[in-house]
Design goal:
By secondary structure, the chain is mainly beta. The chain has a single domain (2-115), classed as Beta-clip-like. The chain has strands at residues 2-5, 11-14, 24-27, 33-34, 42-45, 48-50, 60-61, 67-70, 75-78, 89-90, 102-103, 114-115.
């Protein structure tokens, strides 16, 4: 995976090869999982937070994501085939803590216009 400029927001993580549907393509380092919010950490659900400068920090939101987090296995996996060069995205409504409506710039045909946190 490579980090580069994103059309969604700032920088993003992009596939450097084709990823097949269902493939577990990134193992979340469990030594950086916290049970409390930590500055710079991403909320990944069930009261768990992860500080991952390498990948998760740069994964942008999409209302029609191509990836999701499996908390049981602590992996990022493909919801569908992901082409080489395609941005890796997750639905923040499935991971982030509830909060204010944040405008969404994902550009998906299914865009909700905003995300708020755990749906």
């Amino acid at each position: 995976m490579i980090k580069q400029k994103s059309k969604i927001h700032g920088l993003g993580i992009f596939a450097d090869r084709q990823i097949t549907e269902g493939e577990e393509f990134y193992k979340i380092p469990i030594d950086i999982i916290f049970f409390h919010n930590t500055p710079g950490a991403a909320h990944i659900g069930d009261g768990l937070y992860v500080f991952d400068e390498k990948v998760l920090k740069w994964v942008n939101h999409s209302c029609e994501p191509n990836s999701a987090i499996d908390l049981g296995k602590t992996v990022l996996y493909a919801l569908r085939e992901i082409a080489s060069g395609e941005e890796i995205t997750v639905d923040y409504d499935k991971t982030e803590a509830e909060g204010d409506k944040i405008p969404c710039n994902c550009g998906s045909r299914l865009c909700r216009g905003y995300f708020t946190g755990l749906a």
